Amino acid sequence: MDTARDIARSGDGQVGGPGLLPLLDADHFHEECGVFGVFGLDQAAAAVALGLHALQHRGQEAAGIVSFDGEEFHAHRAMGHVAGNFDRPDVMEGLRGRVAIGHNRYATTGASAMRNVQPLFAELAEGGFAVSHNGNLSNAMALRDRLIRRGAIFQSTSDTEVIIHLIATSSQPTLLDRFIDALKALEGAWSLVCLTREGLLATRDPLGFRPLVIGMLGDAVIFASETVALDVVGATYLRDVAPGELVIVDAAGTRSMTPFPPQRPRPCIFEHVYFSRPDSQSDGLSIYEVRKRIGAELAREAGVEADMVVPVPDSGTPAAIGYAQAAGIPFELGIIRSHYVGRTFIQPGDAVRHLGVKLKHNANRALIAGRRLVLIDDSVVRGTTSVKIVQMLRDAGAREVHLRIASPPTTHSCFYGVDTPVRSKLLAAQMDLEAMRRFIGADSLAFLSIDGLYRALGEPGRDHAAPSHCDACFTGAYPTRLTDQEAQEPAGQLALLAAQ
Prior knowledge:
Distance between the termini: 26 Å
Number of helices: 20
């Protein structure tokens, strides 16, 4: 994760340099990390590599693994995907030991550098300590400035490094006490898996913004950002790490403690909309089934006469299936996605930049020509990709294109571990519904209501007095203080609705 200075970025959405795929993906939110940890398994690093591969969608910029063999720590970090970096025998043979942790990273603009690739590792007074972090610390810049004034020397621009320095400077007697002391200074979102000489530490922030689950593979204990990573290594899902819980795994066994005052959890609702893989479970719910229910709610709220329902693949597909089933309209693959676009395919100039969408998505012309389409996408951020896809369908002969979005309008930036543009770049923060429709060029446009989203989760609607999830990107109701952002925003500009 990156410090608040990096998070308060220009909002251009480009990731990892000028390759083509960042341009294609710039109109989606991006989860910034995936974490995985194993204790008590021969060749633990191999299992971590498999787990990270299953979590590749959560971070595609870089990956790393740190292992411990009982005597020494071993590490390998690399830019790029897990495949190609952790399928090499020379790399994996060096990651010895029966305990290991790993991390997938999605970097924000200006922060794509090896020094930020996790797990971060440091030699502390109590021995080696490695940490993998999913989330974002909303007071990282304030903590960093305070630590630097006290003499700390930072090696990265990652907010995760703040945790290491807080541990190192704590006056508590043991590493566990120092770790807890450090956590109590943090604001914002964190799901952490940490490696020490004794074993693993895994914890979530008290509101549980980012997911973290526990599984078993024989006698081995496994932590992962999503249940799909447990499936890939053959592990059995036990339960979620509870918000505010700290789980310690060492030679004595597994134990749990809750070092924070209890709070009402607020897990990220966007995990259900887009981030998690559809074959995962989150908050005890099937992601795939929730997305189908989202589509069904959208059909009930904003149905329209049409000949077929077409998803923007792949993220819009489950919602489109649910919409089609509820509306009684055929579901068709009117857009075909290429899965073979590399992250640095070409460096586009102005002459080819507009062709980018067709490289990733192409209209199924023979199917859609002359038809009325309901086009389903998961969200709209800047709206630029929607403009191109709608035009692509019209160019392929679609008679009508009715755009339906399987989430409410995105009106606010996220400060809890999701790479989002600044608010001035969000289409729904700048335009009303009709202006957005005209900008995108659709015949009609509708978003799922916030109550409809909660109904898809099995609730009657959003409890405005006590919502069950963090939905700040849709409502502006940030559930924690945003210390760093408050220091940067003009007074009164940032909507802080912590009571909600």
